[in-house]
Design brief:
single chain; 160 residues; alpha+beta; five-stranded mixed beta sheet; 4 helices; 24% helix; 35% strand; elongated; binds zinc ion
Length: 160
């Protein structure tokens, strides 16, 4: 039984540990309140920071602010047959430590918005790459999923 608090910073070194990671750069402060009960660990996470993602509108990277709290329950033993709630993680009964990095990685991804665009600047203008916006405007694709838009994206990537 016991209660502990931890604070740590997530950066690119953390994301490099995940081979297929879509995320590479960022700076996220993680606060963890850790409570050990008889057959259960209660992990209270707080996330606050920003990670680099690719903008859906202009295809350039930007820093997406993220913040949130999440409680995760770690139970010892075999995972039940039926699908349990998402916030319960099972570890072997004889485990002496919990790897929280996968949990942290998963929740950082969950905190990211589905639609990712540059935040507006102080004047309320889009924070996107202005050359790219201008170009997109000239070409006026009917929708972002139009194949011509993807071709354009490839073209500009090559020019970098
Ligand atoms: Zn953008």
């Amino acid at each position: 039984m016991g209660h502990h608090s931890y604070d740590f910073e997530i950066d690119h070194e953390f994301f490099e540990c995940f081979e297929a990671s879509e995320l590479h750069e960022g700076k996220v402060h993680v606060h963890l309140d850790f409570e050990k009960q008889e057959r259960l660990l209660v992990l209270d996470f707080g996330f606050d920071g920003e990670v680099e993602v690719v903008c859906d509108r202009c295809a350039y990277e930007y820093l997406q602010p993220i913040s949130g709290k999440q409680t995760v329950y770690v139970k010892f033993g075999e995972e039940a047959e039926e699908e349990g709630p998402d916030d319960v993680v099972f570890i072997p009964a004889d485990a002496s430590e919990v790897d929280v990095s996968q949990i942290i990685y998963d929740y950082i991804n969950i905190l990211l918005p589905l639609h990712r665009v540059h935040p507006d600047d102080a004047e309320g203008n889009p924070g996107c790459n202005s050359e790219m916006l201008h170009l997109l405007d000239e070409l006026k694709p009917p929708a972002e999923i139009d194949p011509r838009w993807n071709a354009l994206k490839g073209l500009l990537d090559n020019d970098n």
